[in-house]
Specification:
This protein is of the alpha/beta class. Helices cover 54% and strands 11% of the residues.
């Protein structure tokens, strides 16, 4: 797929939307960083943002390349994961002066989200220089942050330019490469949830965007051997897939084509991990393993000929469990669900009347064992996932991961019918 054609798209789709994206340039190739100076020709006061890891990977190279154009060089010092929370936002905003005319992030998920969010608040353009093919948010409008102990995605803006040098990307930590592959594998789950939402709630659905993401996913799943060997052509194809998926999200205006129940699981593990100071995996790796779990849910629902018994919602019991699971983040979760009102909206009659159509959608997703096999090919051992989270936390995710987001997914019929 020619990314430049996707960037130039301006036609009205069959779904009725005009799919556009405001990214001006995407360069994914060996030596891409060398073209950065030319791209910054009209800018003179650049805020360069990285962390202690990504500065070593490419930030120093960018700093030397841009020279006097760099007004401020911000390097977040971190031993483990940098968290995109209120504190990090405050630090970044404090480095923007009245003369700053461009923000350049050097990094992947968190650096991209921070620069995306803060540049949007400050009405500044931003570039992202990718250091790892680890996630699909490079080209999307959404900025995933941790605010008030909650994983929140804010609508922001896309970067003006994405620079991805395969010489840099191929040297990323292996877990980050696995995370990018895992994020793409998770699209099988996300796309199925999108179709399910269309059938059950009559949500907006675009078959062209769906096909774009599915074709990109199918093209990527065979890359595992090349990725393990850090082959530049495989790394380039993976990075292209991640960018295309981000463009698909920008086309739609939200993350629906790329994020579903598997992301809810991942967000659950991250939020609970941060709240309780417990370990959690990289986002894309969590997404990959969670796609196995959400597919198991679909397979359980497919075993039901027709639903006849439904959970009777017990508000007090639900609140008790939300407080047990989310701790000091529970108030935000409860407020979110009260705002959505889904617990007050019975879908039982729809499940009964549309069950055959629902099953037809659920049957389209790859089997859980097939997904597990794809992950094993990439060096992702499913037992590692089970060992780090354990049966109790996994059981809680099945029932309460859905509550940390406002999106309808397969987790809702599971809760109502089998939970």
């Amino acid at each position: 797929m020619d990314i430049d054609l996707l960037l130039k798209n301006d036609k009205v789709c069959g779904c009725g939307k005009r799919h556009t994206v405001d990214i001006e340039k995407t360069i994914i190739e060996s030596g891409a960083v060398d073209k950065l100076y030319e791209l910054t020709e009209e800018y003179e006061r650049v805020l360069l943002v990285s962390d202690s890891h990504t500065y070593k990977a490419c930030g120093e190279q960018v700093k030397d390349l841009l020279g006097d154009k760099i007004e401020t060089n911000l390097v977040f010092e971190c031993e483990g994961f940098l968290v995109p929370d209120e504190k990090a936002v405050e630090v970044l905003r404090s480095k923007i002066s009245s003369d700053t005319d461009l923000v350049i992030g050097v990094g992947s998920g968190v650096i991209n989200d921070l620069c995306k969010y803060v540049s949007f608040l400050s009405d500044l353009p931003y570039f992202i220089v990718a250091t790892a093919p680890s996630m699909d948010g490079y080209a999307s409008t959404g900025a995933a942050m941790i605010f008030k102990n909650m994983k929140v995605t804010f609508h922001a803006r896309v970067p003006k330019a994405i620079i991805a040098d395969t010489k840099v990307l191929k040297n990323a930590p292996s877990d980050l490469i696995k995370a990018g592959y895992g994020d793409i594998i998770g699209k099988y789950s996300a796309l199925n949830d999108w179709k399910l939402g269309h059938v059950v709630l009559n949500e907006y659905f675009c078959s062209e965007v769906y096909d774009l993401v599915m074709e990109t996913t199918e093209k990527t799943v065979s890359l595992a051997p090349g990725l393990k060997d850090r082959k530049e052509d495989s790394i380039e194809t993976l990075m292209e897939a991640l960018v295309i998926t981000g463009i698909a999200m920008s086309y739609v205006g939200n993350s629906r084509p790329a994020s579903g129940s598997e992301h809810h699981f991942s967000h659950f593990f991250e939020v609970v991990g941060l709240l309780n100071n417990e370990p959690y995996l990289l986002h894309g790796i969590d997404v990959a393993f969670s796609a196995v779990e959400t597919q198991k849910i679909r397979e359980k629902l497919l075993n039901i000929s027709k639903p006849s018994k439904f959970r009777i919602f017990d508000r007090n019991l639900w609140e008790e469990n939300i407080k047990r699971v989310y701790g000091k983040g529970a108030a935000e979760i409860i407020a979110l669900q009260d705002k959505i009102g889904r617990y007050e909206q019975s879908l039982n009659e729809i499940y009964i009347s549309k069950w055959e159509e629902i099953k037809s959608v659920l049957e389209e997703a790859p089997k859980s064992e097939q997904i597990k096999g794809l992950l094993e090919d990439a060096g992702l051992n499913y037992e590692d996932f089970l060992n780090i989270y354990g049966k109790e936390k996994l059981a809680d995710a099945y029932l309460y991961a859905k509550d940390c987001k406002d999106r309808y997914t397969v987790l809702w019929p599971y809760y109502s019918i089998l939970g």
